Amino acid sequence: MFDLPSDGWRTRFAPAPTGYLHLGHVVNAVWVWGLARRFGGTVVLRVEDHDLVRSRGEYAAALREDLDWLGLVADEEAPRQSERGERYSAVLRELGELVYPCTCSRKTIRAAVERLGRPEGDEVWYPGTCRERGIDPATTHARRLRLEREEIRFTDRRLGEQAQTPAEQCGDLLVRDRDGHWSYQFAVVVDDMDQGIDVVIRGEDLLASTGRQIQLAALLGRHEPPRFLHHPLVLRPDGEKLSKSNRDTGIRELRAAGWSAERVLAEAVRLGELPEEVASAAFGKLPER
Predict the structure, then answer these.
(1) Pairing of strands 160-164, 152-156
(2) Which domains occur in the chain, in start order?
(3) Hey, which end of the chain has fewer CB within 10 Å, N or C?
(4) Residue 20 contacts residue 39 (beta carbons within 8 Å)
């Protein structure tokens, strides 16, 4: 099932401490812990606090408390991303001339794309405006990585064969922003390499990021990428993802309403469509809805 290694593999649960956990996070957690328990994997807890503006210490403490209450105990805990700045800087230097300074804002990028007559897609595409401008690196913290046009093929362990061309999806990749914060795309690739993560289990909303992360990892010397599995998302009635800011189905609210940990896990298993074989092997008998 899912073509996972028989044992000895490593995956991670990597929440961002920008709000309290909600049911959507638990869907990811039951997939991560469920597959690891069923197929002999190790779960690494990694707090992805690269967003230094929105991350809060109280959220990081709360997510650990909620995981403990759910009975989801990680086998290891990785350093927080906010503690790895020196490592990220070293990797950036290793990339050498593949990286260049960028002074573009989202507004100027959108204007440039509009001038090129490119249809607006689901994400902002960067047209390489600053590639050859020779910007003084001292004038901005922002850095982008040159992504040459390359089709990346991979097999999603749930969704099947995939083909992506990151240069057409997102253009040159932002690795550090104007405020000096490391980007999600860059930090997770470095972390997964350093921490030996060889199976990445996450929601379908991140499927589009996979090709660029594989391409970046190859530039850093990782030519055997992790296996990827993207699971279903929990959506609100309007079709939008659950949101931390809207406190959608928050674990703390469910606890206050009298839900047991087993009931929360059972609901996450149902909403996330985790196969019964995996759920029963990993969590035992859970209450029916």
Answers:
(1) antiparallel
(2) 9-283 (3.40.50.620)
(3) C
(4) no
